[in-house]
Amino acid sequence: MKLNIALLAGDGIGPEVIDQAVKVCDAIAKKYDHEISWKPALTGAAAIDAVGEPYPDETHEICASADAVLFGAIGHPRFDNDPSAKVRPEQGLLKMRQKLGLFANVRPTFTFPSLIDKSPLKRDRIEGTDLIILRELTGGIYFGERGRKDDGNTAFDTMTYQRFEIERLARKGFDMAMKRSKKLCCVDKANVLESSRLWRETVQGLEKEYPEVEVSYEFIDAVAMRLIQWPKGYDVIITANLFGDILTDEASVIAGSMGLMPSSSVGSKVSLYEPIHGSYPQAAGKDIANPLATVLSAAMLFEDLELVTEAEEIRRVVNKSLAEGYVTEDLADGGKSYKTSEVGDWLASNI
Ligand code: IPM
Ligand code: MN
């Protein structure tokens, strides 16, 4: 197969982890006879420095015409402590999600047999966890009306949802649930928020179209607790943008490391694949960042293109590296560790 993949390395450790995913994908392409044409493009602080804006039109053109987008990370500390900054790297990510219509963010949470004891949670609670958080990604409080009034002394952000936004996300959730254990949980704050009541109403309206799916409705605060208390109680979770942002960071604790969790963002056209961790600026340029989340995101990319054997091959070598201790320092427990680039080379050469 001929594949045209937009490559957005971004900021911080982004370029280093992306390099490893490229090595792995190229090894897969060689083994399974595909031809990947990488199309690098600028995003984030790197793009602000080069052209003054975090998601330039040229980058959008490259993404929109690609078969898939592989993305590293975005964010730079020089903007975090400057509340007056007019352009921020994160705006690039939000603009990209919106312009590419990536309304659903798929964030799986699972455990790795060799890492169970890395999690601060007890083995019997987490072993066998396999859930997906489906986060709405182009609406809600991230994109609602915001501003200041009273001479800057009052600030507001609004959580707005339209029925069609909830419905298209919920349908993806139902479809996923049908392929899995047929359990769907809608997470909201319907005891307080009107937008959450519209979520419930919309999801309830879809229930009759999916009679085999068992649907539950839970409040976000309670789920924040139950998710780490008994993660095996969940299968597919659907939730609003901000709630999903928070829950997915929390869920990464179950796997033992944020450096391991992949994600995809899908809409009606091109899809994007990225690790859920951020740009981790303290580690940038040191060749120590864990590349596995990005490599596993590439596995999701192949899977969505129906190249399932290729995806499984990537997961196999990742598991092998974990089992054999060929890992970066965050997973080494003070024992022998390897550089980011060494892990990438090892994975590629084991394909
Ligand atoms: C994420 C990130 C982003 C988000 C930031 C960087 C804007 O935290 O992808 O989860 O909040 O969506
Ligand atoms: Mn986040």
From TrEMBL:
Pathway connected to this protein: Amino-acid biosynthesis; L-leucine biosynthesis; L-leucine from 3-methyl-2-oxobutanoate: step 3/4
The keyword Lipid metabolism appears for this protein: no
A Pfam family the protein falls into: Iso_dh
Highest taxon above the source species: Bacteria
Amino acids binding Mg(2+): D221, D245, D249
Family the entry assigns: Belongs to the isocitrate and isopropylmalate dehydrogenases family. LeuB type 1 subfamily.
Name under which the protein is recorded: 3-isopropylmalate dehydrogenase
Classification of source organism: Bacteria, Pseudomonadati, Bacteroidota, Flavobacteriia, Flavobacteriales
